[in-house]
């Protein structure tokens, strides 16, 4: 943040200002789709979450059973990030707020949440997931564009081809 409380842009989305964050936290205290279910069972609760999600990543539909490596690298995604909910003393481990997620989407999404002014994204779990999918897809395009030339050059070198395209 700068001195006049302007939000910082990061990966194509802007962070909330301190004032916006306060208003947003107040709004989070009211019941929503992520707060309306039981807490996850602590021991094997992840199995229920993965089975309910049909063993696919909530964002990119990667088959998490395709290999042991993919399954081991996957995670229980907190759709609304833990840090955001814990700031208002709400449990983030409700079944309605958890979904299976591949490591790639989890790393790209990080603690992204749709802009607080995007009321449609916050109205339902499906709308929220769709907004996050769009963010992840946009971020993947940015990453592709950033690394495209490096990947091409390395693959050409590995194949013994000249460095010219």
Which descriptors apply to this entry?
165 residues, two-stranded antiparallel sheet, 7 helices, mainly alpha, two-stranded antiparallel ribbon
Could you explain the architecture of this structure?
It is a single chain. The chain is mostly helical and 165 residues long. The chain has one domain (9-158). The chain has helices at 18-28, 45-52, 68-73, 82-86, 103-109, 119-123, 125-158; strands spanning 9-10, 13-14, 75-78, 98-101. The chain has a two-stranded antiparallel ribbon. A two-stranded antiparallel ribbon has the order 3-4. A hairpin with a 2-residue loop joins β1 (9-10) and β2. The chain is globular and about 60 Å long. The model is unreliable at 1-13 (pLDDT under 50).
């Amino acid at each position: 943040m700068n001195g006049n409380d302007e939000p910082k842009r990061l990966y194509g989305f802007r962070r909330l200002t301190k004032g916006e964050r306060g208003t947003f936290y107040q709004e989070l205290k009211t019941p929503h789709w992520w707060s309306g279910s039981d807490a996850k069972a602590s021991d094997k609760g992840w199995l229920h979450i993965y089975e309910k999600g049909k063993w696919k990543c909530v964002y990119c539909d990667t088959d998490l059973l395709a290999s042991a490596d993919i399954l081991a690298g996957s995670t229980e995604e907190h759709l609304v990030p833990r840090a955001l909910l814990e700031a208002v003393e709400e449990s983030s481990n409700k079944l309605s707020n958890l979904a299976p997620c591949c490591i790639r989407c989890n790393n790209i999404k990080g603690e992204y949440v749709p802009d607080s002014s995007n009321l449609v994204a916050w109205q339902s779990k499906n709308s929220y997931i769709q907004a996050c999918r769009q963010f992840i897809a946009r971020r993947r395009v940015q990453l592709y564009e950033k690394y495209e030339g490096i990947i091409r050059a390395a693959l050409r070198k590995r194949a013994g081809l000249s460095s010219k395209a």
